[in-house]
Amino acid sequence: MIAAVSNSDNVGILQRKPQAARTLRNVSVTGFGLEDGFQKARRQGMQPVPCRVIMPERPSLVTGRDDSMSRTSGFSSLPPSNGRPHRVYCAGPLFNQSERQEMEAIARVVIDAGYTVYLPHRDGMEFRLVHEVLISRGWPEAQAGAFLHEAIFALDIYQLVVECDSIVWNLNGRTPDEGAVSEAAIGWTLGKPLVAWTDDVRSLIAGRINPLLAGLVCFRTIEELEDLPAALAAEYAAATEEHTSRNGQPPHAHLPRRARVAVEEGRQLWAALRSDGFSATDEAIADVVTSLFAPSAQPDPASA
């Protein structure tokens, strides 16, 4: 891989193969294991210039691989956030086994690069399984589903706003997952680092992703899972600069009231799920959800 910038126009070039190049403005290259690329660039008469913020000139990555060096060679994970490792929210479809396996593959790549992750079906709760427990305890199906949905919403909002520092968004699917679209939009509004990955052509519109989705990631998507760690680090660098310009205030410092309520409910649920001695079985999760979100009246078995 070559990382360089020409002296004439100050525009960076990332090149994986002789005919596979992409043009970026202000490409962040320091600290991403591209020292070998600098050396190659100098031999070709170009002067590398380290910058910070990625702003793509074109809306998509150019595919192509150079297996002679790892994309994450020399890459170190992002600095700890609030005394803990940088946590990434993994947003994407989770409604069948293949979708869950794909999300777990994304999580493994991110974890291998030194991050921690929040994977909703693994670290939170799975609606179908907890719903079955609630129904077996006498809650009417519709009522159980309603307050369980409230719990899932609160937990995911809390993770997005407070616990997670950045987001990896899986755009795969005939249409991108609705929940993940909402999560990405929330993260974008908060100014969280957001990276989108897709290798699925089904959601393209005239060869492009829906602009209201692609615009959340500056019309730049990742097509190779191995590229996620470096892309996350670049987005984090840009977000850190913006955070400094806000005098250190976190992105959720001035949430509207309804968002603050959801965050507080999610905080209580997360604290219960992570308390000492808690056994994260579906039955135990149902206990916590019931205590925090169920209506005060006990279920009527006759109406179940």
Domain count: 2
- Level-2 CATH architecture of the largest domain: 3-Layer(aba) Sandwich
Q: What separation lies between the terminal Cα atoms?
A: 62 Å
Mind telling me the CATH class of the largest domain?
Alpha Beta
Low-confidence stretches: 1-77
The number of distinct β-strands equals 10
* Gyration radius from CA atoms, angstroms: 22 Å
Count of runs of 4 or more consecutive helical residues: 10
State the helical fraction.
40-55%
Q: In which order are the strands of the major sheet placed?
A: 1-2-3-4
Secondary-structure element series: EEEHEEHEHHHEHEEEHHHH
From the spread of the alpha carbons, the general shape counts as: globular
Examine the coordinates and then state which fold CATH places here, giving the name of the CATH topology of the largest domain.
Answer: Rossmann fold
Largest sheet, described in full? 4 strands, antiparallel
Can you tell me about this structure?
There is one protein chain. With 304 residues, the chain is α/β, with parallel strands linked by helices. It folds into two domains: 66 residues, no CATH class; 228 residues, Rossmann fold. The protein has ten helices and ten strands. The strands form three sheets. A four-stranded antiparallel β-sheet has the order 1-2-3-4. It has a four-stranded parallel β-sheet with strand order 6-5-7-8, sandwiched between helices. It has a two-stranded antiparallel ribbon with strand order 9-10. A hairpin with a 2-residue loop joins strand 9 and strand 10. Helix 4 crosses helix 5.
